[in-house]
Description:
Elements: H1 27-30, H2 35-54, E1 60-66, E2 70-75, H3 92-98, H4 122-128, E3 130-139, E4 142-149, E5 152-162, E6 167-174, H5 186-199, E7 204-209, E8 216-221, H6 226-233, E9 245-249, E10 255-261, E11 268-273, E12 276-277, H7 283-302, H8 315-318, E13 322-328, H9 347-366, H10 368-400, E14 422-427, H11 429-438, E15 444-449, H12 461-466, H13 471-477, E16 494-498, H14 503-519, H15 521-525, E17 529-532, E18 537-541, E19 544-549, H16 552-564, E20 573-576, H17 585-593, E21 600-602, H18 608-619, H19 623-633
Parallel strand pairs: 1-7, 11-13, 14-15, 14-16, 16-17
Antiparallel strand pairs: 1-2, 2-6, 3-4, 3-6, 4-5, 7-8, 9-10, 10-13, 11-12, 17-21, 18-19, 18-20
Amino acid sequence: xEKYEHEYNAEQIQVLEGLxxxxxxxxxxxxxxxxRGLHHLVYEIVDxxxxxxxxxxxxxxxxxxxxxxxxxxxxxxxxxxxDIHPKTKISAAETVYTKLHAGxxxxxxxxxxxxxxxxxxxxxxxxxxxxxTEVTIQRDGGIYQMKFNRxxxxxxxxxxxxxxxxxxxxxxxxxxxIFETLDYDFDTLEERFREIAFLTKGLKIIIEDLRQEPxxxxxxxxxxxxxxxxxxxxxxxxxxxxxxxxxxxxxxxPTEIAIQYTTAYSENIYTFVNNINTIEGGTHLEGxxxxxxxxxxxxxxxxxxxxxxxxNLQGEDIREGITAxxxxxxxxxxxxxQTKTKLGNSxxxxxxxxxxxxxxxxxxxxxxxxxxxxxxxxxxxxxxREAARKARELVRRKSALESTTLPGKLADCSSKNAxxxxxxxxxxxxxxxxxKQGRDRKFQAILPLxxxxxxxxxxxxxxxxxxxxxxxxxxxxxxxxxNDFDITKIRYxxxxxMADADVDGAHIRTLLLTFFFRYMRPLIENGNVYLAxxxxxxxxxxxxxxxxxxxxxxxxxxxxxxxxxxxxxxxxSIQRYKGLGEMNPEQLWDTTMNPESRILIRVKxxxxxxxxxxxxxxMGDEIGPRRQFIEENAKYVRNLDI
Length: 642
């Protein structure tokens, strides 16, 4: 990677304000104090290392989760400057860790050409929200160290040895009085650092979990960059172009793009700015879509694939089945919102659009067989879109008449306040009958489903609109599907999937979740989707109140508690529930529907990449990955009904 030749000394560390507010309002700086905010601490420190890699000075980052949930992050970059800062009169390194908005990332005359940590709050926020922090720097021929407690310096920067190496090592223990948990999730961190390694070509990232035996270790190093990223995303999909189309250009806005088409029907475009995942897109995504649409339409016209009488292919036709990664480096990115999820720099649109159009035009001319295969899929998608439009209009016409607005099997609630209303999507007519009788009619609606549902992973939108099993769900939720979905129009604040606790029930849950993920994703992103947890067992004995157990662990704990009361295990009858229909309305209310006693699991979308891969693996065409998943996870199955 080309080095950004620029001075990186104390003068480049600019101070904007103090640290006072961080501990009082941590959510303002890291989003939350849940496990998500905890992980954010690690990301902030690693992002500083990645900035060194983007500048061309760092080639390896080592992350360790040590016993006691201590985090260690070490890089071989230049090391934080150790000379005295002209304004703060303390070392530049201590300034970075004790002053909010102090860093080498502000304005044109900074220590970095591009940077992910735009606001310069990373190191100081981590320090403020940690019980203790220890920073060791190798630079200028020496080894330096400083220590902090809850953001306050306890040992100023001191030279402790000699070294001809360079780099920074940060160890910290998050503050247990601030965070809800200190238990890092290795898999979540692993996914994030794999992503960073894909986006930073040539950078090696090693993450180790030393908290328990056996230790875990993952190493990521991808010379292919975003090309490797797309291949990873599509590992379980059937490809149309076996090698990704790769586009790369330096210049005003260095851009790296990889594109691969699959036989799937969903589009998956992931965009990044300076390695920040811009989940809401922005001007770089807009430019990519424009260039993509123009290139394919121009090629189809010039090669008479689209006739004069034919309309141009729309963008959504051309993006069906696409997997793409768009990564840009912007000197002074303008993000919309503090969460930095949407790029606002207007000049980026034209730059990316022109680059994509020119590069694709060349590729399509040089690869006519690939161009033909992709365009055949695009034209097929265009026909399906027209069929879907007609089906959608039919649904809208039905909805326009109040008498046919809602599906016939829906038992609606009396309240019209979406915030308090909830709908149970219930497997089977029998369970639906019990649920209808046991519910609170004021705010609980019941929609029974019957028979096998459509697997939307293998279906286009026109089939989905016309599907008799999914149409009631679409009508009941009331907010449309796909690009027409409007979260503000949902009729229920909670959409609860209630299925049997067996293999068939798990399949129905997966089919519904796949549908929501592909066609009503904002419903999941907004936290409106839940899974009901019916009990697995009922313990009963004459003269004793029935005990419901939701897991095998619950069952064993209940037996232990009964034993302490002198009640023998063999004197208690155990009922294993195989289906919701085995419970009468009162039991279903008490165990699964009563807000005072029920257990609901909210479905969260933490990582779109991981979710996409999971649904593709579970519901797609490739059998091998699904078989491997079953073999690896079969040992965790406790109750299997055959």
